[in-house]
Amino acid sequence: MGSIYLIRHGQASFGAENYDVLSPLGFQQSAALxxxxxxxxxxxxxxxxxxLNRQQDTARTTLDRLGSYQGQQPxxxxxxxFNEFRADEVIRAHMHDxxxxxxxxxxxxxxxxxxxxxFQRLFxxxxxxxxxxxxxxxxxxxxQSFIDRVQTGxxxxxxxxxxxxxxxxxxxxxxxTALLQLVIGxxxxxxxxMNWQIVxxxxxxxxxxxRDMALASFNSHVHLELLKNPELVTYR
Length: 236
Known about the structure:
The chain is α/β, with parallel strands linked by helices. It has helices at residues 24-39, 53-70, 87-93, 95-101, 105-110, 116-132, 143-160, 173-184, 188-195, 222-225, and strands at 2-8, 46-49, 76-78, 166-171, 203-209, 212-220. Strands 3-2-4-1-5-6 form a six-stranded mixed sheet. Helix 1 runs parallel beside helix 2. The chain is globular, with a radius of gyration of 18 Å. The model has no long low-confidence stretch (mean pLDDT 93).
């Protein structure tokens, strides 16, 4: 059977003007993942990344570290199908509804780093409305459209894969959530309950034979736990 390793990007710049930048801790997490993959003697036949900077920088940092042990690694191929959904657009599209339940919603989102609990509560509310399919907003990618985009990328990957290929996909939590829904068939809301648990640079392992797929492991982050530094285990 072949293997697809879904790798969430390292910690990005939550609360900063540009979220799509790996933090110093994100680079550290990515290097630790490269060390761990070498210890497991995992060699990739292909490496795919979404277009986002945090995804590509995680891929490059991990593979550079892995290459320091194993030699040349596969070129990182970019496929926009594995981009994260636009969380900022979901929030803006549902802001009117958010203000109805929390009049300070705009201030909370503007200062998210200082209001993490409140941010998570409101963000979860917006996501629930989005994935339900009952509150479609003009111009906003729907949850179903997002699922279809990710499905297209997965199908393309499987069509090109060798029977025993090991493929790394450097992506984001929402994309991993969509892939898990496609593979194990959980409802969207249940899938997002899993999403909130996905650790930066964690590994989720899919096995495939042709188009048949199975989840072998989810959200493994032992490479961070073994370093015995709780600050390395992050969710944003």
